[in-house]
Amino acid sequence: MTGHTAPASAWSRVGGLLLAALIGLVYGAVATIGHRQSLELGGVVVPWGLVAGLLGVAALLLGIRLVAGGRWAAAAAGVGVIAIVALLSLPGPGGSVLIASGLVGTVWSVGPALIAVLIIAWPSLPQRRRPQLAAVPASSGDAATAP
C-alpha cells in the first residue's frame, strides 16, 4: 500500500456534493426553527438558539471542508443552508413567518451566509509533511542487544 488513493469518479463527486447540500438543507431547517430560543438570566435575554445555530453552521461547514478536503462540498452545504434560510424567511400561506423581523431574525438571515463565505474563502494551509527518519544501523553496544 503506497498511501495514495485513487481519484474519485465524477459520479461520486456529484453524489458527495448533493449529500453535502442535503445536509445543509436539513441543518438549516432545524436551526431556523430553533434560532429564536432564548433564556432570561437576571433580566438579560440571551439568544442561545441564535448562538447555537450560528456555531452549528460554522462547525458544519468547517467539518465538511476538512473531511472532504476542499471547498466544493463546503460550498454545497453552504448553499443548502442559505437556500433553506431564504425559503423559510418568506411568509407562509397564512401569513406566518419563521424568521420574524428584528435583530435576531436579521442576524439569522445574514449570519449563515457570512459564515459560509468566510469558511469557503479561507485560504488552504499547506500540508505539513512529517520528516522521514533515516534508518540508523544498530551498534554492537546497543541496549537492546545487551544480555
From TrEMBL:
Keyword Transmembrane helix set for record: yes
Species lineage: Bacteria, Bacillati, Actinomycetota, Actinomycetes, Micrococcales
Transmembrane residue ranges: 44-64, 71-91, 97-122
Protein name (database record): Histidinol dehydrogenase
Highest rank taxon of the organism: Bacteria
Protein keywords: Membrane, Transmembrane, Transmembrane helix
Species for this entry: Agromyces mediolanus (Corynebacterium mediolanum)
